[in-house]
Amino acid sequence: MKKRENFHLPPIGLRIIKSAAAVFLCYCVDLMRSGTGIVFYSQLAALWCMQDYVSDTKQNARQRLIGTAVGAALGLLTLILLPILSLLFENGIFIQQIVVSLMIIGVLYTTVLLRRKQASYFSCVVYLSIVVNHAKDADPYLFVWNRVLDTLIGIAVGVAVNLLRLPRERNKDILFISGLDDTLLTKEHVLSGFTRVELNRLLDDGALFTVSTMRTPASIMEPLQDIRLRLPVIAMDGAVLYDISEKRYVYSYMISDKCTEEMISFLRSRGMHWFANVIVDDMLVIYCQDTDDEIYNRLIAAYRLSPYRNYVKQDVPAGQGVVYFMLIDQKERIEKIYQALDAHGFTQKLKVLKYDSTDYPGCAYIKIYNHNATKENMIDYLKERLQAERVITFGSIAGKYTYTITPGGEEQVVKIMKKLYEPVKRPKKQASDS
Question: What is each CA distance from 277 to 102, 272, 358, in whole angstroms?
């Protein structure tokens, strides 16, 4: 029987708290207005403006403002026309219904002309609330004014609450580098909602942040697709620096042509099959062999559909530098190959890693890189390029990183970043008179 995983209630986020605060503030404003407006409309506008990101808050505020203005203007025009139509036609109610329906065309088309089609729904809501529910009021024009004012109050409250923050420092001279698996990603290999929102907010604010991982750029794309990274990522265990936004390799450590030829000859003499990862015009090409090996072919089938990987069944062309070789086989055979690599001196002049496979039980990997292809070297290169004063690293191996992230503590990366990047400003102490 499958063991049930422990259920954890997600924490109450800041956006939820801010939403409650905005609703209460709308009540406060309505109290000062002595109930002349309808607080419901202010609260709706405030909640609509309450978004994860400042840019979204401003965009939604504009949409709501434009939608309200269009709906109110055409609603006011319709209120002027309806009494005239009731005098001109005997079946006044039916004519009024036709006019109200036709004016919806004008409302929607106006938002198209203003290039604000996203505001069309709000325009229609405001328009219909005026002409359907309040056309017979003693003073419908007062409702139009209050409807607009209510929305303006809600927008102002929503934007103000969402933008309100304590004055903070901005340490833009710190380079933050995080591991990916077991560090930034959850056990489901995704970012938590808190991490995604807060990390994007810090990036938008100018924080220097990137990730460092053994993964190829292709396998980084999916978990980080919603993250607005501005810096290149350190991939392939420090072999390459890859710019996700521009889709290009900024820097790389290659295995020399001579070592590539020696390695291929060595592997072929022992009947091994391998993957040779090569960068061709900022595109990752993976040269592989035509073989009946089941595990080898299963791996190709699993990854070949990726638009960022290109598998080619042929030998590495002469003169092509290899970023790294990868072997996968049964553990016993991988162990023997590793010992042979060590005996022939390859482990001294190249970086050779051996580790068990979690995707293919009973199998293990060997990855072979340029000797200088380390995360530490690539971090130093990136630090110098950015002229950063300090580097803060996050990882899951104790003693290797500035901060060690334990399983289940993925959100700690962003929480620590927030404290270090934007500490609350402290009032400066005034020098005492002597």
Answer: 63, 16, 21
How many structural domains compose the chain?
3
Query: Helix 257-269 crosses helix 331-343 at what angle (to 10 degrees)?
Result: 130
CA distance 159 to 153: 10
Give the separation between CA 243 and CA 385, rounded to whole angstroms. 14
Adjacency order of strands within the sheet including 310-313:
310-313, 283-288, 275-280, 322-330, 363-370, 350-356
Give the integer Cα–Cα distance in Å for 352 and 338: 8
**260 CB-contact burial (10 Å; exposed 0-12 / middle 13-18 / buried 19+):** buried
206 and 278 fall within a common domain: no
> In angstroms, rounded to a whole number, what is the distance separating the alpha carbons of residues 141 and 72?
10
What average pLDDT does the segment 344-361 reach? 92
Q: What is the pLDDT of residues 171-204, one digit of tens each?
A: 899 999 999 988 999 888 889 888 998 899 899 8
- 22 half-sphere exposure, CB direction, 13 A CA radius: 30
- Domain co-membership, 58 together with 151: yes
Average pLDDT in the 367-377 region? 95
Q: Which residue has the tokens 């450590």?
A: 253
Q: Are 125 and 119 in contact (CB under 8 A)?
A: no
User: Residue 429 domain-assigned?
Assistant: no
Cα–Cα dist 33/53, whole Å: 31
pLDDT average, residue stretch 125-146? 78
Please state, in angstroms and rounded to a whole number, the distance separating the CA atoms of residues 345 and 152: 74
Cα–Cα dist 339/287, whole Å = 24
SS3 content of the chain, % helix, strand, coil (to 5): 50, 15, 35
**Residue 292 backbone dihedrals phi, psi, to 5 degrees:** -95, 5
- Report the C-alpha dihedral over residues 225, 227, 229, 233, rounded to 10 degrees: -60
**Owning domain of residue 297:** 257-370
Position 356 in a domain: yes
Same domain, 132 and 186: no
- Which pTM does this prediction carry? 0.72
What's the distance, CA 302 to chain centroid?
Answer: 25
Each residue of 398-434: pLDDT tens digit? 889 999 998 888 889 999 999 999 887 666 655 555 4
Q: Establish how many alpha carbons lie within 13 A of residue 184's alpha carbon, considering only the half-sphere containing its beta carbon.
A: 23
The amino acid at 406? T
> How, if at all, do strands 363-370 and 350-356 pair?
antiparallel
